[in-house]
């Protein structure tokens, strides 16, 4: 029997993937901007249970080509747990092309170069990871528990090992007090990181992110994203800001689409429809 325990999250790009929960919750679970796994006790699922679900999934969906391993940081299972899991998936699904999962800086750092290469050979392909901000001050305020500089280093290690890294940043994470610092430092980190995929979402605070936090208005959020994109000097990066949290959906490639993206944001700012006094219309949560 295939078991899914709520809450269950996946990136939008994994809509067509078979989802297998390798763990429940998030081992860190202290970021003030994220309410995804609040109240969920972190638990790694037993191998025998997972293998049983894989066998059942193979019976029901034998043509599966993509698998997404949930939950919050499946790479944190480590090499010794992931290797047999990836091998079993490859055995069960002859047409399997790729396996993707969430990863954080610490879970990448815990793997040797040889282990990263070994997992990549077993069809582990895309690592979804959150930079969130390039400002260490902002990261510390929201209890991210990671270094921006180390995240840059680990993403570069992963991509050197053959992985595709899909990196997320959060517009508005620094609030009104640190908006410029957040945009400038995030652009600087991304220019060093040079991820294959980049997505920008607008933060939807589940509560007060830090003492003195004042959320950006919708108009200010678009301005911050404009500032960030204007500072990016990337090569061969696919960019998306088409999440419902963004008032101005964007998509393009760097460097060729940079000035088109800036023009679209500027047109949105001048359109007169953005809320200048509040956050505007947005989803309940990310």
From TrEMBL:
Q: What keywords are assigned to this protein? A: Iron, Iron-sulfur, Metal-binding, S-adenosyl-L-methionine
Xref: SUPFAM superfamilies: Radical SAM enzymes (SSF102114)
- What is a single Pfam family found in this protein's UniProt entry? Radical_SAM
Q: Which GO terms describe its molecular function?
A: catalytic activity; iron-sulfur cluster binding; metal ion binding
Which top-level group of life is the source organism from? Bacteria
So which cofactors does this thing need? Answer: [4Fe-4S] cluster
Chain ranges of the Radical SAM core domain: 10-232
- Name the chain's protein: Radical SAM protein
